[in-house]
Amino acid sequence: MIKTFVMLLLLCVGQVNAEQPKLWVLTNLEPPFSQQNERGQFEGIIVDITNGILGEAGIDQQILAAPWERVFKEAASKANVMTVGVARIIEREDQFIWLTPLTSAIVGVFSLDAPKQPIGQLSELNLTDSIGVLDGDYRLTLLQQAGATNIVILNSWLEGTEKLLDGKISNLFLSTIGIQLMCKKLQRDCHHVKRILTYEQITAYVALSKGTDSITIARLTKAAASYKNSQAFKQTTQKWISQYEQQNGLQMHLDKGVINLWAKD
C-alpha cells in the first residue's frame, strides 16, 4: 500500500514538472524599477509584478537580465520567450504577443523656456535653437523623418539633461519620468523644466515571442489578469510607488492596473 502511494506521488510530481513550460524571462534592467541589489538579487516594482504573474501561473522561472538588443534578438529567434518592459510601438506591433501593460510614460519635448510660438509638431522644432536626442534612439529617427536640422546627438540621457539645464541645448526629446530620473542622478532642481510638446503616451508591456505555444499563452494571460485583480498586486504597487516617491522623489500613480509614470491630475 505504501509502495503504491509513493509511486503515485512520484507520478504526480512528474506530471507537475512536465506541465512547467520551457520559458525564458528576459528584461533590460532599468533602475529603480528593475535593478540588482547588493546581494545580487533583482528587485523593483517591475520585478515583483513579473514574479507575481509567474507565481499565479505556477511557473518557477528566474528573470534574466540582458541589453535590449539581446532581448529582441532572442525574442525574434525563439519561441516561449517572455519579455518584460518592452515598449509597444507601431514598429513592434506584429513582433510580439502582448500579454499585459506594465507602465505608461509621456514622451515629449522639454525646455527651460516656453517657445516664442507654440510647438504643435516635431517639424516646428526647427524654429528653436537645438533639440537633443540619444544616439540610436527611435526618437532620433522621428526627428530625422520630421526634417529637423538642429539635432544634437547625445551619448546619454544624463549628458542631455545636464546640457539642457546648463543652457547648452534648448530642447530635449525625452519623457516625464526620464527627466525626473536624470535630475535625481544629477542632484539638480528641475522644477523649472517645461514640457513644450507632448508627442505620445507610450506603454511598456509584458510580452511573449511569436511562436509561443497556445497553452503557455493562455496560462500566462489568465495569470496576468488574475494577479492584477488581486490584493497582492495592489499592495505591491502601492508599496513601491510610495517608496519611489519618498526615496527618489518620483511622481507616479496606479490606474486600471497600469503604473502611470507621472503625477496624478
From TrEMBL:
Originating species: Paraglaciecola hydrolytica
Superkingdom of origin: Bacteria
Signal peptide: 1-18
Pfam family, one: SBP_bac_3
Keyword Signal: yes
Listed InterPro entries: Solute-binding_3/MltF_N
Protein name stated in the entry: Solute-binding protein family 3/N-terminal domain-containing protein
Domain Solute-binding protein family 3/N-terminal residue range list: 30-242
Keyword terms, alphabetized: Signal
